[in-house]
Amino acid sequence: MLIKKWMSSPVNTVDADASVLDADDLFKKKVISMLPVLENGKIVGIVTDGDIKKATPSQATSLAVYELSSLLSKVKIRTIMSHPVLCTTEDRTVEEVAGTMLMENISGMPVKNNRGHLTGVITKSDIFRCLVSFTGGARKGQIFAFRITDSPGMIKVITDIIRMGGGRLLSILTSYDDVEEGFRKVFIHAFDIPEENFDSVA
Description:
Layout (H helix, E strand, L loop, with lengths): L2 H4 L7 E2 L4 H11 L3 E6 L2 E7 H7 L9 H8 L15 E2 L4 H11 L3 E5 L5 E6 H12 L6 E8 L4 H11 L3 E8 L7 E9 L6 H4 L1
Parallel strand pairs: 1-2, 4-5
Antiparallel strand pairs: 2-3, 5-6, 7-9, 8-9
């Protein structure tokens, strides 16, 4: 699951000297959550929709609409962007980047190719799309959860039972988190199991 297959592309960007008003307009028109900030063609920062909201006065402000627009047109993106920028590359996996985003507590990353050119962005929404696709989350079926001994052949025993019951496998996920040593958790998403065979499989 390479980032190249799941990133959002082409990339919407904003210039470091653009105004908050310009960026806010982009966020509304493109329905996006983050924008790489460029200066002389190079990435110098990241601005999110949250950054824009923080820089915008509360709706309780006494400023008139034209006064608010005038104020936001004078605030430059470089003054509110996050920097330095943590980037990733197209050849990294979704799992690797998701782990980095989780550890760094960020919502997305710009993506570069092997020549260092900006080719996309990967966001939490893209990660979710990948997860749903590979787990079959959008497809109806049965999900089985097991706690099994961590020994060779155990998963095959379970999948063979599902197949013998007429089921087809959609995804298999395993984890060692929150389980004692010598065991693992297994989650199997299957479908097409006839109703009369469900009890024997479960």
